Amino acid sequence: MFTGIIEEMGEIISVESLNNGGQETRIACSFGAHCHIDESISINGACHTVVAFDQTSFTVQSIEETLRKTTLGSLKVGEKVNLERSMTLQKGIEGHLVQGHVDTVAHIRSIEAEETGWLIDIALSDEFRDMIVGRGSITVDGISLTVAQDLGDAFRVAIIPYTWEHTNLSMKAEGDGVNLEFDVIGKYVVKYLAKMNGNRS
């Protein structure tokens, strides 16, 4: 479990294909020496398990299902990724409850700079429109954000300077893919209501 508050940006050191169709990725970070095998780390919002580490990096493996449902299969050496280690009972929930289970990849429609921040519109397929609630929580590439506006076929988030400077959002461009995780409570509500409506018909 995570909170969506990015700890730091890591840098991709290597990306190698595995014989089983998966991918092994090594990421430079400041907390490599403090990792442990089987530790959970969110990489651009996707929960991964540490399989190796050293003083300056850690290594994870992604299976085919993860590569199908996230942007991790397109990572390049030198690219920056958002990192968050799993929360502990001593850590405050400063964002919202995030599972690290990516629901879908969406694409940035527009990025608009304002005087005090940035507005990012992200396109959304029909399948997921019921998951968006104005002023509700959403995770974009691992970042806990608030939906500023439900645009129907898209949604808007407002980015403050600190988030812009301390995550990889500042490196994104129109058309880039981002990993989305919808609020888990909202997902349960939508599923329950769909089931109830189905039973009544």
What does this structure look like?
With 201 residues, this protein is mainly β. It contains three helices and twelve strands. The chain is globular. 31% of the residues are buried. The model has no long low-confidence stretch (mean pLDDT 94).
Number of strands: 12
Instruction: Give the C-alpha Rg.
Output: 17 Å
Mean pLDDT: 94
Q: Which class of secondary structure composition applies to the elements?
A: mainly beta
Tertiary shape? globular
Strand content: 35-45%
The topology string of helices and strands comes to: EEEEEHEEEEEEHEH
Helix-residue proportion: 10-25%
Biggest beta sheet attributes: 6 strands, antiparallel, barrel
* Distinct helical segment count: 3
Low-confidence stretches: none
Enumerate the strands of the largest sheet in spatial order, edge to edge or round the barrel: 1-2-5-4-3-6
Note the gap between the termini: 37 Å
Please give the structural blueprint.
Layout: E1 8-17, E2 23-28, E3 40-43, E4 46-53, E5 57-62, H1 64-69, E6 80-85, E7 104-113, E8 118-123, E9 137-140, E10 143-150, E11 154-159, H2 161-166, E12 177-182, H3 184-200
Antiparallel strand pairs: 1-2, 1-6, 2-5, 3-4, 3-6, 4-5, 7-8, 7-12, 8-11, 9-10, 9-12, 10-11
Describe the structure concisely.
The chain is mainly beta and 201 residues long.
Relevant terms:
single chain; 201 residues; 6-stranded antiparallel β-barrel; 14% helix; globular
